[in-house]
Write a structure and sequence with these properties.
By secondary structure, the chain is α/β, with parallel strands linked by helices. 45% of the residues lie in helices and 12% in strands. The strands form 4 sheets. A 5-stranded parallel β-sheet has the order 9-8-10-11-12. It has a 3-stranded parallel β-sheet with strand order 3-4-5, sandwiched between helices. The protein is globular. The structure holds uridine-5'-diphosphate-glucuronic acid (UGA).
């Protein structure tokens, strides 16, 4: 993603990975992930000779003045971020570099990793005499809108140790800062009329902290909205009305207050966990965030309980689930609440037919007991309940009369508050959602 976007704004980029199969897929013109618009920009950059893929990291290290580290930092069993891939890449860069390099952390890492990276580069490269500068440039891209987020960011944060690194990064991002690129997402029309991104220069430690603190705050907002939703449900209020009005206050903001199944994906849950561990290691009691995690862990169970109440007996029932991805516009099913929900229902003896516009290929091998037909209508047919588990816009636009007529019992559990309760009831569907009167 980073490679494709940097090439899109005019840089010459070599992307490398130790997973040779991934490089082969990319070289064959295919993408290992679904991300709207990415295929187009990659094809264009390759045609114009600005982007190439190599399974030989030495080629990429030799060619690059600036090297972005975009490796994964998955959670270790104890919840800390696993930094072994960063260490491995540091060794590789130090061994292969023959000229000065700016090494930029793009991966999400705990604060102070930059210091360790600098030390590692110096130790591994002690015989080469090559100068390494280290910088942190945290990623704020969301899956599903990553290209849009890269080209029209609200801020670009760079954690640096000197002006040379800052200038080099400013030069890399100049087309984005000055809006000097042909936007592939909006052309031929105009780009959205938003202010240019804030260029924020900090220390490396601050930049690393900004990333973890931002993702944890987003998680906190979601858990907060989910608790208010539970309260709204008990008190006969409507969470949608509540968060709409709350969000009108610019100090609060409307985004990330959508109640439902809780947050999933490969970023928010793991970053939150790593942040809690980082706080613990430094002796700071950040139990607030432990509560955020605890609330999130209970969300899927809460929706399963709702399904149980509506269906009375779950065992043996045919249930349709719309959505597998952890959110809309992606095929990513890592830590997806929808998958957790399906697994819980299967354990209770339900027969599941699931549909997702993009994620079925990834989910199929992991869920042999789940039927995955080619349309939402086929999933709904003969079902006694239909659960909306991912907020795909397409689901809102389905022909709900047709669905009603083919279901054995027209019962909808909208775990993402995607549909209008009033419209569903007017169509004669039994409708349950989250934080709204049933
Ligand atoms: C998140 C951050 O939003 C990005 O800014 C960050 O760059 C990225 O992690 C990262 O660290 O790389 P992403 O994981 O793509 O992005 O997904 P989000 O859009 O944050 O959604 C996360 C989860 O929260 C999804 O399961 C989504 O359905 C859920 N969510 C989101 C809610 O339940 N309610 C909301 O109001 C918003």
């Amino acid at each position: 993603m980073t490679g494709g976007c940097l090439a899109e704004i005019g840089h010459e980029v070599i992307v490398t990975d130790n997973d040779a199969a991934k490089i082969e897929t990319l070289e064959a013109g295919r993408l290992p992930i679904y991300e709207p618009g990415l295929d187009t920009i990659i094809a264009k950059a390759r045609n114009e000779g600005r982007l190439s893929f190599s399974a030989k990291p030495s080629d990429a290290v030799a060619a690059g003045d600036a090297i972005f580290i975009c490796v994964g930092t998955p959670p270790l069993p104890n919840g800390d971020a696993d930094l072994s891939a960063i260490d491995h890449v540091a060794k590789l860069i130090a061994n292969e570099a023959r000229s000065p390099k700016l090494v930029i952390e793009k991966s999400t890492v705990p604060a102070q990793t930059g210091q360790e990276l600098k030390r590692a580069l110096a130790v591994y490269g002690r015989k080469s005499g090559v100068t390494f500068r280290v910088a942190s440039n945290p990623e704020f891209l969301r899956e599903g809108t990553a290209i849009e987020d890269f080209l029209h960011p609200d801020r670009i944060v760079v954690g640096v140790e000197d002006e040379i690194a800052e200038r080099q990064l400013h030069e890399i991002y100049r087309p984005v800062i000055e809006r000097k690129f042909n936007c592939p997402m909006h052309s031929p029309g105009p780009c959205p009329d938003v202010p240019p991104p804030a260029w924020i220069v900090t220390t490396i430690n601050s930049a690393e902290l900004i990333k973890h603190a931002s993702n944890s705050f987003l998680a906190l907002k979601i858990s907060y909205a989910n608790m208010v939703a539970d309260l709204a449900e008990k008190l006969g209020a409507d969470i949608q009305e509540v968060v709409y009005a709350m969000g009108m206050d610019p100090r609060i903001g409307r985004s990330f207050l959508n109640a439902g199944l809780g947050f999933g994906g490969f970023c928010l849950p793991k970053d939150l966990q790593a942040f809690v561990h980082l706080a613990e290691r430094t002796g700071v009691d950040f139990s607030l965030l432990k509560e955020v995690e605890k609330i999130n862990r209970k969300r899927v169970g809460y929706v399963v309980e709702k399904i149980r109440r509506a269906l009375w007996v779950v065992k043996g029932k045919q249930i349709a689930v719309l959505g597998l991805a952890f959110k809309a516009n992606t095929d990513d099913i890592r830590f997806a609440p929808a998958i957790d929900l399906i697994n819980q229902l299967v354990r209770e003896g339900a027969k599941i037919r699931a549909y997702d516009p993009e994620a079925m290929e990834k989910a199929r091998p992991l869920m042999p007991d789940v039927e995955m037909p080619e349309s939402a209508y086929a999933a709904a047919k003969d079902s006694e309940a239909l659960v909306i588990a991912t907020e795909w816009k397409q689901f809102r636009e389905l022909d709900w009369t047709r669905i009603r007529d083919t279901m054995t019992r027209p019962l909808i559990v909208d775990a993402r508050n995607l549909l209008s309760g009033r419209e569903m009831k007017a169509l004669g569907l039994e409708y349950y959602s989250v934080g709204r009167p049933d």
